[in-house]
Amino acid sequence: MTKGNPLLEQFDSAPFMKIKTEHYKPAIEEAIRQAKTDIATITASKEEPTFENSIEALEFAGEKLDRVTSIFFNINSAETNDEIQKLAQEISPVLTDFKNDIIQDPDLFERVKKVYNQKDSLNLNVEQTTLLDKKYKMFERNGANLEPEQKQELRELDKKLATLSLNFGENVLAETNKYELHITREEELEGLPKGARTAARMLAKEKNKDGWIFNLHYPSYIPFMKYAKNRELRKELALAFGAKGFHGDELDNRENVLEIVKLRHKKANLLGYPTYAHFKLEERMAETPEKVNSFMEELLEKAKPAAKKEFKELEDFAKGLDKIDRLEKWDAAYYSEKLKEKLYDLDDEQLKPYFELNNVINGVFMVAEKLYGLKFQQVFEIEVYHPEVTTYLVTDENDKEIALFYADFHPREGKRGGAWMTSYKSQYRQNGEEERPHISIVCNFTKPTDEEPSLLTFNEVTTLFHEFGHALHGMLANTTYPSTSGTNVFWDFVELPSQVLENWCYEKDALKLFAKHYETGEVIPDELIQKIKDSATFHEGMATLRQLSFGMLDMSWHGQDPSDIEDVKAHEEKAFESTQLYPEVKENCMSTSFSHIFQGGYAAGYYSYKWAEVLDADAFEFFTENGIFDRETANKFRETVLSRGGTEHPLTLYKRFRGREAAPEALLRRTGLLPKK
């Protein structure tokens, strides 16, 4: 179906309303054909290889394929169904084959290598040099120097890995969607706030059932774990959440996990690396598994005493309050919330009325305007893939178009869990024309009910700012090439723009812009803002330990030879030994639903959240020295970090912004593990 296929026609914004599922496969097949023609033109050239006719030409080859696949895989994450998932299983191996056709094309690699070998005499600018390095490494790191039979083996490995990753994600989504906790007795809702009850009643109504339904999507799961007094029901829900992909049925992910890590290790060995972590970290700021492990151990040493102290206080508090025998994982959120209320006289229910979703969206827009002069105007003529998606035209102070922005905020059955930023079109320059980016953020926030609009928890507010930080990185890109633009940076640097923006959520000057009571319009009182700031380091030791445990689990899968691992759960327990506070739960397993590392791009990279925290705390201290809305500081951050994408090594960019490398003391001060200045 190539004739009349909207994906094969010229378009700027994605033609969502015209796309049918049957359009994707033929469009991708035709786009691959066009990309192969582009590549053939490069390799058939009789001219001597140059940067322009080989490296630049390769960069822009397959442009149509990039657009079509970005639409398809974004839809498979945000608005999928059985048909699209089946299609993804068919399309992924085809795309992997095509990628390997390029990587293993000896004539193409020969041209790239010739240019690379003379790079010192080509008088290239910084971005061109980076692009040349990236293109050469793309071939080298994907087997261009291997023997023919090894290339074939790598090809098969990549195809299997693509399929296994899809299987893993589909199982997690199916597990999330199939479970429900159906409550028919109102007394079992004790402790739950009105908004959570109303949402659960609406969910039951949608399923033609009486009573209340809670599920494993965060806006339903988190309030229940935080507020429900019924300990047995908290346990039931927590066990269901922690057992995704761990039931020994057709949705079990244990075999997928073992096969993925073993194939990744095999791939790394084939390419000459001792482990998959060595392979991945070669192109990270951290560089080696040894440096990552040392970084995490250093943080663990500082955080563990605080975490153990916090845990003991929480356990004593819970025992004193409810005479429980021992603190379990399903008690964590409930008693933490109770203790926070006692210590700070603060809970999420006090804050939520000040964080109506539209006000928070306007707030993050105002912060972006004050910092970077951006303006956001909702537009209605842009096609969307679901009625809940809103679109905005982003312009600068001179009304120049900066980006198109899509926002999709609420959970649906066809949407995977969590929150993420993505792109439908990169920023780049070609033939004297500049193309501006199309950026999207996708979240799973509390839905509006019959009685209330969407009121966000403070954690959801910081999540929105986090994803919007990623979006700014994409929107403010100012580079020549798509593969050096926006968030195309080292993985342990990509979280800096997102995490640094979260800091504004704690600042009075920012909160006063948008935190207004949804009924009265009253601006959030200073006393509540102070409580937010005071409670910001509450249980920071335990939170740090939790993040480190995920990073250590990731490295345990990818930083060693996994060939002898047979029991996923036993391996996980061993990886968690140094960070464990709560008693082990035999029915649960994190690895089987750890989508970040088995479906997303975080394999051997989960440590990067903590790594980027060091950068963001240090960067934000620079902002606070001059005022959080100081335009000079903001412009410096924009010019040295946000606009530069992956044009230079991130350490170079950061030092240009800060004047030095990041100091870890800023993070320790912020988390209360060191005294403030």
Fold and architecture overview:
The protein has helices at 21-44, 51-60, 63-78, 82-103, 106-117, 126-140, 148-178, 194-206, 218-227, 231-242, 254-270, 276-281, 289-322, 332-344, 348-351, 357-372, 458-475, 495-502, 508-514, 526-534, 540-558, 568-576, 595-598, 608-626, 631-642, 650-658, 665-670, and strands at 181-183, 212-214, 375-379, 390-395, 401-408, 420-425, 428-430, 433-435, 438-442. The strands form three sheets. A five-stranded mixed β-sheet has the order 3-4-5-9-6. A two-stranded antiparallel sheet has the order 1-2. Strands 7-8 form a two-stranded antiparallel ribbon. The mean pLDDT is 96. Helix content is 55%, strand content 6%. Among the domains are: 6-145, Endopeptidase. Chain P, domain 1 (Glutathione S-transferase Yfyf (Class Pi), Chain A, domain 2); 179-242, no CATH class. It is globular.
Text of the CATH class of the domain at 6-145 = Mainly Alpha
Number of helices: 27
State the end-to-end distance: 65 Å
Strand content: 5-15%
